[in-house]
Amino acid sequence: MELHATTIFAIKHNGKGAMAGDGQVTLGESVVMKHTARKVRRLFHDRVIAGFAGSVADAFTLFEKFESKLNEYNGNLERAAVELAKEWRSDNALRKLEAMLIVMDEETLLLVSGTGEVIEPDDGILAIGSGGNYALAAGRALMRHNGEDMEAKEIAKHALEIASEICVFTNGNIIVEEL
């Protein structure tokens, strides 16, 4: 059985960016192994935030690869993401990794996947993991109905709280990082 980590939500709103991740790590389909995992991290002199969903070991491998790309391209988020996606897609060992990343800096928010995709959302909101669709729906609803009165970090936290109420693989131990 593999250890899996689940829900990440990110948003760009009113000139700020925020990313939230829950703390649950699940073994298989039925055992919670950890409640306080940290799946959202600051990278490159605290100017970049990255979050992962998927297999924990695979995600750490991707964090390391992404951080080395950030260093190689002097913090250029888009270039680092594209180069990581190219390497991820073409390398036989990396292609087997079961994880996804959301990365952001002050200007850009991107989803990076092992199939070579680097996607920038139209609405400034991304979510991944087993509770990702719940968090995405919650975040969009919050934006439409209360967004002007909320900060990015509040929307991120509330979206993840709502996802944790629905998804059994997402818990309420939420870490939020803001740029």
Sheet having the most strands = 8 strands, antiparallel
Output mean pLDDT.
90
Taking all Cα atoms into account, the compactness measure Rg is 15 Å
Report the portion of residues in β strands.
Answer: 25-35%
Oligomer: single chain
Number of separate strands: 12
The ordered string of helix (H) and strand (E) elements is: EEEEEEEHHHEEEEHHE
Number of helices in the DSSP assignment: 5
Would you mind describing this structure in some detail?
With 179 residues, the chain is of the alpha+beta class. 36% of the residues lie in helices and 30% in strands. It is built from five helices and twelve strands. The protein has helices spanning 56-72, 77-90, 92-95, 132-146, 152-166, and strands at residues 3-5, 8-13, 16-21, 25-27, 31-34, 40-43, 48-55, 99-104, 109-112, 118-119, 125-128, 175-178. The strands form two sheets. Strands 1, 4, 5, 6, 7, 8, 9 and 10 form an eight-stranded antiparallel β-sheet that branches. The protein is globular and about 40 Å long. It starts with a strand and ends with a strand.
Layout of strands and helices, then pairs:
Elements (H helix, E strand, L loop, with lengths): L2 E3 L2 E6 L2 E6 L3 E3 L3 E4 L5 E4 L4 E8 H17 L4 H14 L1 H4 L3 E6 L4 E4 L5 E2 L5 E4 L3 H15 L5 H15 L8 E4 L1
Antiparallel strand pairs: 1-4, 1-7, 2-3, 2-11, 3-12, 4-5, 6-7, 7-8, 8-9, 9-10
Helix pairs in contact: 1-2, 4-5
